[in-house]
């Protein structure tokens, strides 16, 4: 079983008492912001039967690596007799499936900020997104069924910024509190700041040929037009075959692809 530490407080609402939420951290062992988020959420003293914090890849964290054998967030549903991450995904699978909501905490080395990632774009998920009001939502079809949140009834990943940025921590915690207040888990005053959320369908990877580098003009969420150059190697260029929005471009942990292609939904 995955390591847990739990939060505790009594609640009287029967519907809430039957709810199970997992705050998942360290899917990637080098994304330590999840530990800080968990520490802040622990202060809310939410009933341990409702909210549990799951340390996903403890072994990778302990040796200061992103993963041991392969990316855990590309390893689901896992294998009983596979490598470390495949076996870990296999063990985590029933835990994730048993929860009503899974909140997965991430950081990024790209310039991406204030972004929620989901795979199931159903009514309940959309409702929770509207409560949180992030700047961006990515419906991640490019990694469908392999990511941790893909196995959840409702899975929401927070990709709010860089790992050691205090503003990233502050915004993640504030937006989790919005959700928890909506669910009736906490009773605190929340500032009513309304954001306009932009939604993107993320449908494929943009592969990176050896030694090609992005052009400086390329920015996440800034449309790349069909026929536009976006990367080069010496006097050789990569040209877009279709219009697309670059998503998670500049992430240092992506070795053989630049990031993802997206299309605006809303």
UniProtKB/TrEMBL annotation:
Keyword Cell inner membrane: no
Cited PANTHER family: ASPARTOACYLASE (PTHR15162), SUCCINYLGLUTAMATE DESUCCINYLASE (PTHR15162:SF7)
Descriptive protein name: Succinylglutamate desuccinylase/Aspartoacylase catalytic domain-containing protein
GO cellular component: cytosol
Pfam families: AstE_AspA_cat
Transmembrane segments: none
GO molecular function: hydrolase activity, acting on ester bonds; metal ion binding
Top-level lineage group: Bacteria
Gene3D superfamilies reported for this sequence: Zn peptidases
Domain (Succinylglutamate desuccinylase/Aspartoacylase catalytic): residue spans on this chain: 27-163
Keywords from the UniProt entry: Hydrolase, Metal-binding, Zinc
Cofactor(s) the protein requires to work: Zn(2+)
Species: bacterium (Candidatus Gribaldobacteria) CG_4_10_14_0_8_um_filter_33_9
Keyword Ribonucleoprotein: no
